[in-house]
Specification:
The structure is a single chain. This protein is of the alpha+beta class. The protein folds into 2 domains: 73 residues, OB fold (Dihydrolipoamide Acetyltransferase, E2P), CATH 2.40.50; 154 residues, Recombination protein O, C-terminal domain (de novo design (two linked rop proteins), Up-down Bundle). It contains 7 helices and 8 strands, in the order βββαββαααβββααα. The strands form 2 sheets. The protein has a 5-stranded mixed barrel. It has a 3-stranded antiparallel β-sheet with strand order 7-6-8. The radius of gyration is 20 Å and the shape is elongated. The N and C termini lie far apart (45 Å). Belongs to the RecO family.
Length: 240
């Protein structure tokens, strides 16, 4: 990024107050990936229209400036996208969308572009907004994220370099790959057919639970053990 005003396509992931009238926004952009921007004077009455735009789950065109890592917001416009309606994110849908935001913040280095991941994130938001069965979409998003940051395992070959076979069973090893399960490991193993399907980004209803287990273990190595706020929101949504 340079000091001249730039326009970037971005979605706000998180916002926090800064001083008396400003906010610091963590945004995920097509052009620069994850970075922070300060929105000055956003809490005044004259800035209510701008503040209404600066909400999560909306694709925005942000005009930014500044030489430091913390950019300054100059202007913003809502980019119309009929597939993503932020008003539809409630209860479980809201929890799932916030989960995506949290993992992006935890997993990504700042100021590295991830255009394919940005597209996958937008597609995930559209799927959450418009369908009731979005578990497969979450897993596909996680796979794109894992590949983007270079920590996805090989879904075609095990850690010994042997092809993964659909009829065999495998465990997810601590080395970050799959190894053929022994008899005593079968209870904690996954079918080769599920692993191969994951590698192709195909998540069927019959494989959904096992795909979720694999992705959850892989994501744990990325986001750590600190509890996610979105999980608390998910648990609360299940009680209401």
């Amino acid at each position: 990024m340079n000091s001249k005003n730039e326009r970037v396509k971005a979605i706000i992931l998180h916002a926090k107050p800064y001083q008396e009238s400003s906010m610091i926004l963590q945004v995920f952009s097509f052009e620069y990936g994850l970075f922070s921007v300060i929105a000055k004077g956003i809490k005044g009455k004259k800035s209510q229209a701008k503040k209404a735009l600066l909400q999560p789950f909306q694709i925005l065109t942000l005009e930014i400036t500044g030489r430091s890592n913390l950019k300054t917001l100059v202007g913003c416009e809502l980019e119309f996208n009929e597939a993503i309606n932020a008003s539809l994110f409630r209860d479980r849908k809201l929890a799932c969308a916030f989960y995506a935001n949290e993992v992006l913040i935890r997993a990504l280095p700042e100021r590295h572009e991830f255009p394919d991941l940005f597209k996958a994130y937008c597609q995930l938001l559209a799927n959450i907004a418009n369908t009731e069965n979005y578990s497969a979409s979450l897993r596909q998003f996680e796979l794109v994220l894992l590949r983007a940051i270079g920590v996805a395992p090989d879904f075609n070959f095990d850690i010994e370099g042997m092809p993964i076979l659909a009829d065999n069973s495998y465990i997810l090893s601590v080395q970050g790959g799959f190894s053929k399960a022994t008899k005593i490991e079968l209870n904690d193993s996954f079918p080769g057919s599920v692993i191969l399907s994951l590698g192709e980004g195909l998540i069927t209803e019959s494989h959904l639970k096992q795909s979720e287990q694999i992705c959850r273990r892989l994501m744990r190595s990325v986001i750590g053990d600190k509890p996610l706020q979105s999980r608390k929101l998910w648990q609360h949504s299940n009680l209401t």
